[in-house]
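Re: Re: token formats

Sure, here are both.
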Amino acid sequence: MHGKEENNDLYWVKIKEESGVSVYNAKIDGKIAIRGVGKIKGKPAQLVSLIENPAKWANWIENFKSGKLVAKINSNNKIFYQSFNSPFPVSDRDVVYESKIFRDKPKIIHIEMKSIEHPGAPKTIGVRINIIFTRYYIEALNDNTMLVRFESLSHPGGAIPDFLLNWVSASYPITLFKSLRRELRNML
């Protein structure tokens, strides 16, 4: 079950496979980056639309509280705000991030996200998350199936115990894929 994979200049170690999702970790400057790889039924444009639609976020983002589009630079470059409920005694979190969509190859859509400061963003509700990177690689395999690779490295801010961060790194990609699959089925 455990394996190693190099990609994006990171050394990814496979830590589990569940529900058709392979989960990997990579250490970067003492922090854990996470990766999930799996197939999702649907079309890449539908998935991109879902990822960028604040009205749908509550349906698939765990602990989602609120969110909005802060600024639209163009159709492929936007600034978003999201806030999240956190379990006691952890403070609620929020994030302001820039999202850029790239269509480098005919069948592949690549989304890059990272935290930024923006004057139009709401004031923080507790602790501001720092997304170092979040990436989606979406490859159309056939008319209604895509291979999706999700990668993320962030600093949640504040004092969160290591055991909780480790648990999230192993479980979040599976939860994310299950939620995206369910939401895309509901869109049909």
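Second one below.
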Amino acid sequence: MNATSLRDSLPGGSVHRSAATSLIGWGLLSALLFTLIGCETFSRKQIEAIYGPSEGILETVSVLRRHVPDDTYRFPPASDFSGRNVYRASLLRLENLERAEAEALRSGYMDAVLLFSKARALERLRGFDLAAEHYRESARLSSELRENALESAAFCERLEQATSIGIDLVDPIADGGVAPLPLDPAAIRIDLDERIARLSLLEGELESSHYRYLAQEEIERADSIRAHYFVAMRFVLPDGTLIALHELQRVATRHGRSKNRLRHLLRLADFYAELSSEYLAAIPAESLEFDPARFSELADAAIQLFELVGSHDGRPEKIEATRKLEAFLALTLGIDADRFDR
């Protein structure tokens, strides 16, 4: 007779067994409820951690400070735990904490730190004038931060002055319309060259500072603006198409180490594809004037660039390049095989 049979043969054995079963059942039920409640609490806290405010100012400041030295010219800006740009997210969290903890911060003991940290975020978001104002106010409130704040304010002011020279890209659907582009390419070149010269001088002075990367980003932007201008003006300038092509190639060559290098190559591929389409519209493939060699020169350049960009795994430009390559090849399906080799 085993232990279970012996226990059941004793007086009250079945009662004990029922009680034990009951206890086991309640224990399992309690464990299950605890697990469900724990999972629900964890899930709720996880959601709140992503969309809710930070635990405190020091947490936000420490995250921002960790990414101040990042090379944002060569690499994309870091993302925080919610997947957002760390500089923009930090600025929003600091502003939210100022509102949520207004009573605790009423004494002003953290004002200098908040201003300095917001300035660090603003300068990465191209708000150089606002960053300089925050730095100067932080220097006024804190003797410990004064030296760094005033030095940073001076750099931001120089960046603001440099980037204000020459034309800039504008909102294409702005209220009131967009002003026409100036018809003076020589003046555009002179202004943007001056902007780049000032930024290059600033870059050379800041070899060991994160402002070097900001200057490099603004130089790249100035080169892109220049290329954008000549692409937009190619129909009204003598040899406008060749100039625009040269400017796009110049951007891709000068900024081969930039995080936007694939974007520059994709823009150049788009231009070759656009020229191919314009050539077909002007000279249909079935006409006697159609020159297969000339069309192939444009089309092959577009295809090679699309394939080059599409070979970079893990980059969003890969998806864009492969889809554009498919669309461009579809354009060529109406051309006889003896005139264009696919």
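The mean pLDDT is 86. The radius of gyration is 32 Å.
- S.
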